[in-house]
Amino acid sequence: PCESPTCTWSESHRAACEARWLLTILKPKRLDYMTLVAKHRGQEAADRLRADAMTLWEQSRSGQRGNFG
Question: 67 vs 54, which has greater pLDDT?
Answer without folding.
Answer: 54
